[in-house]
């Protein structure tokens, strides 16, 4: 299996057909990747489900379940940003998160 | 124990980077995180290779633990300060592990690596050198480690606290959502276990909530303080963090961590499993 077209992180070895993937990139000032951000995945009730640090290119990925989720992004010297996203098994939801400069 | 004895702030760590007798140790789920940058002077413990037996599913034994710490240059009277990513999940696991083998002075960096990074404090890729020591461990303290038979016996009789996320507890997810979901074991939870996700212990920046907030959290779900408690999650690392809160911050007695956790229980033949958001009946 080849890696995902977008997202920057390889999906090699993961059976994407069985996963509800949420992935994307955290950016500052429009196009500058944020490598030291933390992205939290919150469920429908706002409860924490998972958290990942962003990669050197600002990318992150979750294996969620079907339904609505919220991404809460924390980055140094920036306010937390909440982003709604819908995930579905067998697809990859791409998200771009912009944090304040 | 208390917050003062078991927790240090990021500022305390920064002020004590050069203090003799203080050993910083990073333990991460992502075992490459340290190599990309760590707090100056910190050594690394790899939870998969350093702390686990490489053949059986179990911890390294007393002699192996002694050899490990001797080789890394940790002495019996050192103050060990643990920190890591994932809100200290694996640092708390190592904390519990150090207690299991009787290390006296262990502390967690409140907020772990995340708090340190969000504060924009310095990380380095320089590797420290420490002189070898001759470390002596105690026999494992069985009063803080639960095994599967006592977990099954605890159904309906002890406080069982499942600290996974609500979706894992209910059986809608099989693993934390930063990991692929395909797993061998069944989904769900141990009947009568209550779900207090580990994350309710912590603020967004990874620091622990106040003692008052933490006390209220466990009162709310009807924790019976007269009963013994077993904490579990998927592989025993998030439940180490809850064990830390209950034992070290709140001073509760008779709390055990079940490191077999759901990957063991959910694979056992013939044990009861509950699905959905309610604890279920014994």
TrEMBL record, chain A:
Keyword entries, A-Z: Isopeptide bond, Ubl conjugation
Pfam families per UniProt: DUF1416 (PF07210)
UniProt-listed InterPro entries: CarboxyPept-like_regulatory (IPR008969), DUF1416 (IPR010814)
Matches recorded under SUPFAM superfamilies: Carboxypeptidase regulatory domain-like (SSF49464)
Domain of life where this protein originates: Bacteria
Gene3D superfamilies: Carboxypeptidase-like, regulatory domain
Record protein name field: DUF1416 domain-containing protein
TrEMBL record, chain B:
Catalysis performed (reactions): thiosulfate + hydrogen cyanide = thiocyanate + sulfite + 2 H(+)
Key word GTP-binding present: no
Domain Rhodanese, first and last residues per copy: 18-125, 154-274
Pfam families: Rhodanese
InterPro entries: Rhodanese-like_dom, Rhodanese-like_dom_sf, Thiosulfate_sulfurtransferase, Thiosulphate_STrfase_CS
Position of the signal peptide: none
UniProt KW keywords: Repeat, Transferase
Protein's name according to its UniProt entry: Sulfurtransferase
Organism expressing this protein natively: Nocardioides pini
